[in-house]
Write a sequence for this structure.
């Protein structure tokens, strides 16, 4: 793509600010914003010199001033916006979860297959320098064949009780769907395809219809077993990925983002490997930009988004 990339933000809530920061860091022009909440859209516009706020995503896309969009709306609103953009050959970076239902995710995937535009899922964790390095370490056999994958993403997010994240009709699920979507994608990226999944969960919040704490277990085609824990109601925050292989272990603690730990069989001390600390947002923007420019294919595709939805929705049944 030869012309300059100009982005529109569809949805101006909390996650859109991270997308905006990623675009700014990579010197990509955010030309337009839109949100169902006009006040939120106007507030975001005021933070972006030269940008324009639109009443809705269709008028923004039809204006011709953007050739790429970040979909930062709740999951139930993804399908309509993504499909409209793809049919107009507008490149799309779509937040997770891909959609609120398996059926919606499949319909988006079908549109993506017909469009000339790029569709990329915003599974930012796989673009962290640490995760890229861990992927390469596992592929190189540094800890032998993987046996266990253990991941926790949880913390005190009690404010979720009164937000759309705990409304099934909007979110499609609770903490597992919102948070463990990243976990499932990391498992598939680092380990391989999931062939079996199970889960246990509980709802602590009163008056909500989704889980706010849960654990899902998965099994890969290669036999690796994974455990993924998520919660909105944990009293303290914790975020890590721990992979045990037949010859050793790799541990990444998000609270210490500039290092990976590795310990091989028989070793008493961890070996520390330095990596660049990152939230992954700017890194995924680089990948999105280069895919639009034709430098490579998207590594996080509609299939990846669909599989995460399929796996977690199967746990709910």
């Amino acid at each position: 793509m030869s012309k300059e990339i100009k982005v529109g933000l569809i949805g101006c809530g909390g996650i859109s600010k991270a997308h905006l920061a990623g675009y700014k860091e990579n010197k990509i022009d955010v030309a337009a914003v839109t949100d169902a909440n006009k006040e939120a859209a106007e507030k975001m516009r005021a933070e972006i010199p030269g940008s324009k706020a639109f009443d809705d995503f269709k008028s923004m896309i039809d204006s011709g001033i953007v050739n790429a969009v970040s979909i930062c709306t709740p999951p139930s609103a993804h399908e309509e916006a993504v499909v409209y953009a793809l049919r107009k050959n507008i490149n799309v970076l779509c937040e997770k979860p891909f959609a609120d239902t398996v059926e919606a995710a499949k319909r988006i995937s079908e549109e993506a297959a017909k469009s000339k535009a790029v569709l990329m899922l915003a599974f930012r964790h796989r673009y962290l320098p640490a995760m890229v390095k861990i992927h390469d370490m596992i592929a190189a056999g540094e800890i032998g064949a993987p046996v266990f994958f253990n991941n926790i993403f949880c913390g005190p997010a009690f404010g979720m009780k009164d937000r759309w994240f705990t409304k099934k009709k909007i979110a499609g699920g609770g903490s597992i769907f919102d948070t463990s979507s990243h976990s499932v994608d990391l498992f598939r990226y680092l380990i391989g395809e999931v062939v079996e999944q199970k889960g246990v969960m509980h709802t602590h919040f009163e008056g909500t219809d989704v889980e706010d704490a849960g654990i899902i277990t998965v099994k890969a085609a290669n036999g690796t077993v994974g455990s993924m824990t998520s919660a909105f109601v944990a009293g303290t925050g914790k975020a890590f990925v721990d992979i045990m292989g037949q010859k050793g272990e790799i541990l990444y603690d998000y609270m210490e983002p500039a290092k990976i730990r590795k310990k091989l069989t028989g070793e008493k001390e961890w070996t520390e490997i330095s990596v660049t600390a990152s939230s992954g947002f700017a890194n995924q923007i680089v990948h999105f930009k280069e895919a639009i420019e034709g430098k490579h294919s998207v590594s996080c595709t509609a299939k990846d988004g669909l599989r995460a939805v399929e796996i977690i929705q199967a746990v709910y049944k």
In short: The CA atoms of residues 161 and 205 lie 6 Å apart.
